[in-house]
Write a structure and sequence with these properties.
The complex is a heterodimer. Helices cover 78% and strands 1% of the residues of chain A. Chain A is an all-alpha fold. A two-stranded antiparallel ribbon of chain A has the order 1-2. In chain A, a hairpin with a 4-residue loop joins strand 1 and strand 2. The two termini of chain A are 17 Å apart. Helices cover 72% and strands 0% of the residues of chain B. Chain B is an all-alpha fold. Chains A and B meet through helix 1, helix 6, helix 7, helix 9 and helix 11 of A and helix 4, helix 5, helix 8, helix 9 and helix 10 of B.
Chain lengths: 318, 297
């Protein structure tokens, strides 16, 4: 068991190592280096020299990679070209803002998804299922920037209930954030809830058809007792992994949502750093977002392991 | 999946089978709706250059932000361009880019997956690690990095999208190959002395094809989503090109009084994505593949 956990952690670390190689090699192989890309037409003379010196582009690539990697491991991501300050200072408030947005969305999304998933499964092909399933298909497939734009158009402009574009300084306090994130949270949790509710639905349906549930019905176990005692624990377990993957997948969607709502989180930093051609920040973001992805998956794997005694003796790779 | 083992008269069977699958897909309302929407968009994309009433890039200060009328069915945008024209031509852009992108994704993803499933061992381990690593970089960051360094033309976008969305297909193709490879008919083909290439071509590909195609259909809708998000963020196709993501991002600032120029591309894009999704779902069901428990990776 302990060995299995260690193995999972090791695999995660290897994945992160490859990610760091990919981003590093990618920037290295694609035309232009960090300095010429950043300075564009002014890439000559003293400015170029200074920039090359600052980033250490004059030393061989592999040495630079080792330097960079060992700094990242120690928590130092280097120097932002456009912000002209250490990347850590740029990241700090952004990470906090994104964490607030993500955790509120998750706190609302997961319970809602479980409830909706159970309702649609138990009333399968009846009116509640058809209605909820149709809505989930819509909110799942429509791109984030469309649902976000529609939310602004309907709620903020036509109904005038909430401010549409949020203007938040990136160092806003927690309370200031909370009162301004209703629409972004709705936009994000809509998609997340839809994905997870669909997953829970099919999982519950599968378990309902299993032998032990049929047995419980035949034994005369009351319906709701059967649902809560026999069906749900077994149905929600496989959902954990999918929930994790969905959350991780949403990292991409959060970028778009943050741009639409002008929310100062990590997602908008992605766009800003790429528009500014600030490659050191892009590299830092790639590693951070990949770590979040790997971390969430790891937690989900471990949770499934802990909760499912059958898996403890098996080594199942997804 | 196993039912479509190769038979003598497979040419005739293929067409019949395709028709049968189409029939099964259309037999459910969701599949029928999906097929209708996709067909509508494809036809519109084919004929749109001939039926477009105006020039999509003609800027005119006299017709700025007109409300929908008999002359301009969907109104005009902030540069005086006809929204109807740009909307129907936008579908052409989206479908072309994502169709060729999906084709590339299917080809390299499918082939690499089958290869990994076949050889196994160290090579397989290494390739899958790299694929996993690619999966853990958010698609948007990778795509943005590629287009910001290589430029935003369709020649860059199509291979970039194809490359990036193919990595999920690698996994599916590999898993399907693993399932097939232990089957008796592979063993007997080996025993008959068939070469590896012949086994891949005649035994494995026909048996993993369905799984890969279904995955490709799903990727198509995600690629459309990714492509239009890129355009929306200003990293997709460049401005005068009629494109839904671009139109929405341009019209968004003025939507408090000119909502029509944002509604038309929204309806176009949403309906196409929903159509492709419903079709892909129906396709998967018609082939007997359950996708409902998969995460959107």
């Amino acid at each position: 068991m302990l060995l299995l956990i260690l193995k999972r952690i090791g695999l995660g670390l290897i994945t992160l190592f490859i990610v760091s190689l990919i981003t590093f090699v990618g920037v290295e192989v694609l035309p232009g280096d960090a300095c010429t890309t950043y300075l564009e037409r002014e890439a000559y003379g003293a400015a170029l020299d200074a920039c090359i010196k600052r980033l250490g582009l004059d030393i061989p690539a592999y040495e630079r990679y080792l330097d960079w990697a060992s700094n990242v491991v120690r928590g130092d991501f280097g120097y932002s070209l456009s912000g002209e300050m250490p990347i850590n200072e740029v990241l700090g408030p952004r990470v906090k803002n994104s964490l607030v947005l993500a955790s509120v969305s998750i706190l609302i999304g997961i319970p809602l998804a479980i409830v909706l998933g159970i309702i649609t499964a138990l009333w399968r092909d009846k009116l509640p299922d058809i209605m909820i399933s149709t809505i989930t298909i819509f909110s799942m497939t429509i791109p984030e920037f469309i649902s976000a734009t529609l939310l602004i158009l309907i709620v903020a402009i036509w109904l005038g209930w909430l401010p549409g574009i949020v203007i938040i300084p990136s160092d806003a306090t927690f309370y200031e954030l909370l009162s301004n994130i209703i629409l972004p949270v709705v936009a994000i949790s809509m998609i997340m809830t839809a994905h997870m509710a669909r997953m829970v639905r099919s999982s519950v349906i599968q378990v309902m058809a299993s032998d032990y549930v049929q047995m419980a019905i035949l034994k005369g176990v009351p319906y709701w007792k059967m649902v809560f005692r026999h069906v749900l624990p077994n149905a929600l377990l496989p959902a954990i992994n999918v929930v994790a993957l969905t959350i991780a997948w949403l990292l991409g969607g959060v970028v778009v949502t943050e741009v639409v709502f002008n929310y100062p989180g990590l997602g908008r930093l992605v766009i800003e750093s790429i528009s500014n051609r600030d490659l050191p920040v892009v590299q830092a973001l790639a590693i951070i977002l990949a770590s979040i992805y790997v971390g969430i998956n790891l937690i989900a794997d471990l949770m499934t392991l802990m909760l499912n005694p059958r898996l403890k003796s098996l080594q199942i790779r997804k | 999946m196993e039912s479509n083992l190769i038979t003598e008269d497979k040419q005739k069977n293929k067409l019949e089978k395709a028709l049968e699958i189409l029939k099964t897909m259309a037999s459910k309302p969701s599949g029928l709706i999906g097929l209708t929407i996709v067909l509508f968009h494809v036809i519109l994309a084919l004929i749109s250059p001939y039926i477009a009433p105006y020039d999509y890039k003609a800027i005119s200060p006299n017709t700025m932000l007109l409300a929908p009328s008999a002359e301009h069915w969907f109104g005009t945008d902030s540069l005086g361009r006809d929204v109807f024209t740009r909307t129907i031509l936008g579908g052409r852009t989206a479908l072309t880019v994502t169709f060729f992108g999906s084709l590339i994704a299917l080809l390299w993803g499918g082939l690499l997956g089958i290869f990994c499933g076949l050889v196994g061992g160290k090579i397989d381990d290494v390739v899958m690690r790299v694929v996993d690593a690619f999966l853990s970089i958010p698609w948007i960051l990778a795509m943005l990095l590629i287009v910001s360094l290589l430029g935003t033309s369709t020649e860059v976008l199509i291979p970039a999208l194809g490359f990036f969305y193919g990595k999920g297909i690698v996994r599916v193709a590999r898993a399907a190959t693993h399932d097939v490879i232990a089957k008796d008919f592979i063993v007997s083909a080996r025993a008959r002395g068939h070469s590896n290439m012949s086994i891949i071509w005649n035994e494995i590909i026909p048996n993993v094809r369905d799984a890969i195609l279904v995955e490709g259909a799903m990727r198509w809708s995600w690629m459309l989503l990714g492509f239009s998000s890129l355009s929306f963020l200003g990293f997709g196709v460049s401005p005068p090109t009629p494109d839904w993501g671009l139109m929405i991002s341009n019209a968004r600032g003025l939507m408090s009084f000119a909502y029509w120029s944002v509604i038309a591309p929204i309806v176009g894009l949403s309906s196409l994505i929903i159509g492709i999704n419903l079709t892909a779902d129906a396709f998967a069901k018609a082939l007997g593949i359950d996708r409902s428990t998969k995460a959107p990776v």
